[in-house]
Design goal:
Length: 96
Protein backbone atom coordinates (compact mmCIF):
# COMPACT_ATOMS: atom_id res chain seq x y z
CA UNK A 1 0.00 0.00 0.00
CA UNK A 2 1.57 3.29 -1.05
CA UNK A 3 0.86 6.62 0.56
CA UNK A 4 -0.76 9.29 -1.57
CA UNK A 5 1.79 12.02 -2.25
CA UNK A 6 1.00 15.44 -0.86
CA UNK A 7 1.31 18.10 -3.53
CA UNK A 8 2.91 21.41 -2.55
CA UNK A 9 -0.28 23.25 -3.52
CA UNK A 10 -2.36 21.07 -1.16
CA UNK A 11 0.18 21.62 1.61
CA UNK A 12 -0.09 25.41 1.09
CA UNK A 13 -3.92 25.21 1.25
CA UNK A 14 -3.72 23.19 4.47
CA UNK A 15 -1.32 25.73 5.97
CA UNK A 16 -3.59 28.60 4.90
CA UNK A 17 -6.67 26.92 6.40
CA UNK A 18 -4.85 26.40 9.67
CA UNK A 19 -3.66 30.01 9.77
CA UNK A 20 -7.09 31.40 8.96
CA UNK A 21 -8.70 29.44 11.80
CA UNK A 22 -6.29 31.09 14.27
CA UNK A 23 -6.33 34.71 13.05
CA UNK A 24 -8.86 36.00 15.58
CA UNK A 25 -6.99 34.40 18.46
CA UNK A 26 -3.73 35.80 17.10
CA UNK A 27 -5.13 39.34 16.93
CA UNK A 28 -6.54 38.93 20.46
CA UNK A 29 -3.13 37.69 21.73
CA UNK A 30 -4.63 34.34 22.72
CA UNK A 31 -2.09 32.01 21.05
CA UNK A 32 1.00 30.34 22.42
CA UNK A 33 4.31 31.95 21.45
CA UNK A 34 5.16 28.91 19.31
CA UNK A 35 1.91 29.14 17.35
CA UNK A 36 2.38 32.91 16.96
CA UNK A 37 5.82 32.33 15.43
CA UNK A 38 4.41 29.71 13.05
CA UNK A 39 1.57 32.00 12.02
CA UNK A 40 3.89 34.98 11.54
CA UNK A 41 6.24 32.89 9.39
CA UNK A 42 3.32 31.84 7.20
CA UNK A 43 2.04 35.43 6.91
CA UNK A 44 5.52 36.57 5.87
CA UNK A 45 5.46 34.25 2.86
CA UNK A 46 1.76 34.02 1.92
CA UNK A 47 0.30 37.09 0.22
CA UNK A 48 -3.28 35.77 0.32
CA UNK A 49 -3.29 35.13 4.06
CA UNK A 50 -1.57 38.45 4.69
CA UNK A 51 -4.35 40.25 2.79
CA UNK A 52 -6.98 38.47 4.91
CA UNK A 53 -5.07 39.30 8.09
CA UNK A 54 -4.61 42.96 7.14
CA UNK A 55 -8.28 43.30 6.22
CA UNK A 56 -9.45 41.67 9.45
CA UNK A 57 -7.07 43.76 11.51
CA UNK A 58 -8.19 47.02 9.86
CA UNK A 59 -11.85 46.07 10.20
CA UNK A 60 -11.45 45.42 13.92
CA UNK A 61 -9.58 48.70 14.31
CA UNK A 62 -12.43 50.59 12.63
CA UNK A 63 -15.05 48.83 14.76
CA UNK A 64 -13.19 49.82 17.92
CA UNK A 65 -12.90 53.40 16.67
CA UNK A 66 -16.65 53.54 16.04
CA UNK A 67 -17.34 52.28 19.55
CA UNK A 68 -15.27 55.12 20.96
CA UNK A 69 -16.82 57.79 18.77
CA UNK A 70 -20.21 56.58 17.55
CA UNK A 71 -21.78 58.52 14.76
CA UNK A 72 -25.27 58.56 13.33
CA UNK A 73 -26.06 58.04 9.71
CA UNK A 74 -27.99 60.87 8.15
CA UNK A 75 -31.64 59.81 8.02
CA UNK A 76 -31.74 59.81 4.21
CA UNK A 77 -28.69 57.54 4.04
CA UNK A 78 -30.21 55.15 6.57
CA UNK A 79 -33.43 54.93 4.55
CA UNK A 80 -31.55 54.19 1.33
CA UNK A 81 -29.32 51.63 3.03
CA UNK A 82 -32.22 49.76 4.60
CA UNK A 83 -34.16 49.87 1.31
CA UNK A 84 -31.24 48.38 -0.63
CA UNK A 85 -30.84 45.67 2.00
CA UNK A 86 -34.61 45.04 1.97
CA UNK A 87 -34.83 45.89 5.69
CA UNK A 88 -37.61 48.44 5.65
CA UNK A 89 -38.89 47.15 8.99
CA UNK A 90 -35.80 48.72 10.55
CA UNK A 91 -36.29 52.23 9.17
CA UNK A 92 -35.25 54.78 11.77
CA UNK A 93 -38.03 56.40 13.73
CA UNK A 94 -38.81 59.90 12.48
CA UNK A 95 -37.53 62.63 14.76
CA UNK A 96 -40.04 65.26 15.71
Amino acid sequence: MSATPVHPHQRQEDDCSRVLTHLNDYIDHQLSPELCEELEAHLAQCDNCRVVFDTLNKTLYLVHQLRETPSELPETVAYRLFAVMNLQQFYPKKKR
